[in-house]
Amino acid sequence: MSAAAGTHPGRVHNVDQDNAYAFIRDPNLGKTRGLFIVADGMGGHQAGEVASKLAVDTLHRELKWFLVQSDSEETQPSLPPVGSQEVELQPGEQLGKRLLAAIVQANKAITKYAETHPADAGNLGTTVTCILVDDDRAVVANIGDSRTSVLRNGSLQQITEDHSYVAHLVREGQIAPEEVFVHPRRNVITRSLGYRPEVEVDLWVEAIRPGDRWLLCSDGLWEMVRDEGMIARVMTSTPSPEEGVRQLITAANEQGGADNIGVVLIHVNSVPGDV
Question: Which of 75, 153, 246, 266 is deepest in the core (most CB within 10 A)?
Answer without folding.
Answer: 266
